[in-house]
Write a structure and sequence with these properties.
- The chain has about 450 residues and is mainly β.
- The chain has 4 domains: about 45-135, RNA Polymerase Alpha Subunit, Chain A, domain 2, CATH 2.170.120.30; about 145-230, RNA Polymerase Alpha Subunit, Chain A, domain 2 (Beta Complex), CATH 2.170.120.40; about 235-335, Beta Complex (RNA Polymerase Alpha Subunit, Chain A, domain 2), CATH 2.170.120.40; about 345-445, Beta Complex (RNA Polymerase Alpha Subunit, Chain A, domain 2), CATH 2.170.120.
- The strands form 9 sheets. The protein has a 5-stranded mixed sheet with strand order 8-6-3-5-9. Strands 4, 7, 10, 14 and 17 form a 5-stranded antiparallel sheet that branches.
- Strand 31 (about 400-405) and strand 32 form a beta hairpin.
- The chain is elongated and about 160 Å long.
């Protein structure tokens, strides 16, 4: 036996057996349960279609823009099944379009889709084999950003300034014909709910054509800061103390002074234009002597808010003798002394408000009409001050409130308000001028 193992024939037989074993392992087809044992039996041939294979495009990305290339294609592979399975699972091959030639011309081109890094024992086909691409010059231009927002979300009575954007310009890069289509560069501020205060937001920049279609371009920066200043119109008017109720017989109201003298109102401009003062009712029916009282201020109709909720009114009084006591004292006096003692008149200063006085225009040309813009309707409240006796005698017919329209042409004007009152009476208006509109009279037909 040892002699046989040491012979050359034994070595040849072992080498042959190893060769057959190696050949069998190479030609074994998984999943079939069969082995190709013959020297001339090839591996089983198959076909596999791999879908949605990404397409790479090679070109000068710094200076060119390529459009029209498919994002993915289908690749069909043919060959030995074991190699097909490996290629499908590993996907080491690449599908590409080569536009890297530095001398490549601009415009549309029909170009082949190629495949690389594929096993040389496999054949491959790409679907589609060709595609049409458009090669264009890449350009960059600077555009101003137009910030915008939904105006309907601003709370009623509030106003918003034009939104501010930072930075104010952006650089947009893309194909020349796309850049030429840019009509608007917008940054839309996202708002939620009703807005009644200044807001700051970040907004995405969009490039749009004339039909408001979004364009495929690169924007730098793509996000900007937008600020929207929201405010509410305001107007400062006087606080006017108004006496209500009847003072006691033993008390005379000499004066009433309000602190602070003014209040700021906030609301729609049209509402504010019609308000010229805010009354503070002062009930004097329970006042016994001089004092200061804190009173609430009623918010006028249509006003959103006020700078004050209360005001302090300083009431100055003086004592007076009751009328019935004076009568009794007079009856007790001897007849000869009645002429020597005369009751002193009440000289304390009081206030009285006459509401809704008509402002009368004078000096208007025959072919003109005058309309009051403010005070609305040409009506105004007038505060009078004087002694109680003098104020008691004043009637609305004793007062003249006028504006002089002499020489005023068509259009809007501020006309001084003039007041005439009886002697010894002082007056005060909430405003000194009236805004009037002068128009031509319609011709009669």
């Amino acid at each position: 036996m040892d002699k046989f193992m040491n012979s050359s024939w034994f070595t040849k037989i072992v080498a042959l057996a190893l060769t057959v074993l190696l050949f069998t392992s190479v030609n074994f087809t998984p999943g079939t349960g069969k082995k190709s044992l013959g020297f001339n039996t090839p591996g089983e041939i198959g076909t596999e279609t791999i879908k949605n294979v990404p397409v790479e495009v090679y070109y000068d990305r710094d200076n060119l823009v390529v459009t029209g290339a498919p994002k993915s294609v289908d690749v069909t592979l043919k060959g030995v099944k074991s190699l097909l399975i490996s290629a499908k699972n590993q996907r080491e091959f690449k599908v590409y379009i080569d536009l890297s030639d530095p001398e490549i011309a601009m415009g549309e081109k029909k170009v082949p889709l190629k495949i690389r890094d594929i096993n040389e024992k496999l054949t491959a086909s790409v679907n589609p084999e060709y595609t049409t691409v458009k090669i264009q010059e890449k350009v960059t231009k600077e555009f101003s950003v137009d910030p915008e927002y939904n105006r309907s979300l601003i709370e009623d009575g509030y106003t918003a300034d034009k939104p501010a954007v930072s930075p104010q310009t952006v650089k947009i890069t893309g194909a020349k014909d796309i850049i030429d289509q840019i009509a608007y560069v917008k940054a839309t501020m996202a708002l939620s709910g009703r807005v009644n205060e200044t807001v700051h937001r970040q907004a995405t920049v969009r490039a749009l054509d004339r039909d408001l279609n979004k364009l495929n371009v690169s924007i730098e920066p793509s996000v900007v800061d937008v600020s929207l200043n929201v405010n509410i119109p305001s107007k400062t008017v006087k606080l006017v103390p108004v006496q209500t109720g009847t003072p006691k017989d033993t008390v005379s109201i000499k004066s009433m002074t309000v602190f602070p003298k003014n209040v700021t109102l906030y609301g729609k401009q049209s509402v504010l234009d019609s308000i010229h003062g805010v009354s503070v009712p002062v009930d004097v029916s329970n006042i016994d002597n001089s004092k200061e009282v804190e009173l609430p201020i009623t918010v006028p109709d249509g006003v959103k808010k006020m700078s004050l909720g209360t005001a302090t009114v300083k009431i100055q009084t003086e004592k007076v003798e009751p009328a019935d006591k004076n009568t009794a004292d007079t009856e007790k006096k001897p007849p000869e002394k009645q002429d020597e003692q005369t009751k002193s008149p009440d000289t304390s200063t009081q206030t009285k408000v006459i509401k809704n006085l008509d402002i009368v225009s004078s000096g208007l040309a025959d072919d003109q009409d005058l309309t009051f813009i403010s005070p609305k309707g040409g009506n105004i409240d007038l505060t009078l001050s004087g002694t109680a006796d003098d104020l008691q005698k004043v009637e609305p017919d004793d007062i003249q409130v006028t504006v002089d329209a002499t020489g005023l042409e068509e259009g809007e004007h501020d006309a001084a308000i003039q007041v005439k009152v009886p002697a010894n009476i002082k007056w005060e208006l909430p405003v000194k001028t009236a805004k009037v509109s002068i128009t031509k009279k319609d011709k009669e037909t």
